[in-house]
UniProtKB/TrEMBL annotation:
This is ABC transporter ATP-binding protein. Residues 7-238 form the ABC transporter domain. CDD domains: ABC_Carb_Solutes_like. It comes from the Bacteria. Keywords: ATP-binding, Cell membrane, Ion transport, Iron, Iron transport, Membrane, Nucleotide-binding, Transport. GO terms for molecular function: ATP binding. The keyword Transferase does not apply.
Amino acid sequence: MTSPPRLEVQNLTRSFDGRSVVEDVSFSVSAGQVACLLGPSGCGKSTTLRIIAGVDIQDSGSIFVDGRLVCDTVFRVPPERRAIGLMFQDFALFPHLPVSENVAFGLKGNFQSNRGRVCELLERVHMTEHLDSYPHELSGGEQQRVALARALAPQPRVLLMDEPFSGLDERLRDGIRDETLSLLKEEGTAVLLVTHEPDEAMRMADQILLMREGRIMQQGAPYNLYNAPVDRQAAAFFSDINVLTGRVKGALTATPFGDFLTPGVPDGTEVEIVIRPQHLKIDFDRGGQGPAPTPENGSAALARVSRARYLGRESLIEFTTDEGGIALNATVPGVFLPPAGTPMWLMLRRDRVFVFPRR
């Protein structure tokens, strides 16, 4: 018999002053899985988290932990009895308690009876030497490790994390995220992480729940959301994009790169053709000596450099196409800084392009 999801949310809604903030949100998270609620500020992520934690009440919908109802619009288990842990953006450590007592705070019994669990977790987050330190004596990264140990100490079935890494120095963030992910996997906890950073979601999540205006617009594995976005906005959330627009005529849309097939789209429909900068390839124009280079399964357009900038790991080259004067950006690994006005061929593979009806 298949076990129920560790966390299951069904048709959750919440409104404030007549404005819908969370609208028909449904998803599930299995044991040992990390799910990321990803979206811009104000899209309903934190409200969803607060309802699951029990510090806000939904207008409709149900929440289950291990198949057992914890709340709907009639029945409600108190927050402290839901076996759900919380980890906040500001860590929320108690300044008057040493590290050891912060970690032991949510455990039943006295400190001595819980010393083994406390020491085990502090060792796993590499904080044993700070057992008797106070929060103000720790760096941001060290406070984050203590907050994680405290959240995991009662062995919650589900851990909710609200932007937990946003206060950390960018140089420390990747390492601490990786350490956190490793520990969460070892504990077998189901994790729901709220973030507005797509890189963080891609790095940590087994599944991403992409939210917009209170709704989950798309959910699935990071690979699927990146490579099969549901619309232009979803594609743009994960990377910079170039957009060509055109109208369908006879199942074709004309662009500087030639005609694109748009089968099933009615004539006259305006469509958006989305290309990521890293999927535009570049070749020098040879002054008419030989045909335009055309990659396999692709096509090319002549353009001129508007500006080129080195960004550290890659170079960003801004172009304007000769046909239509369309602005396009391309990225190239390493240093590549052609002068403004340089004519070049831009090539793309059509299997790396997304076509959406314009909204």
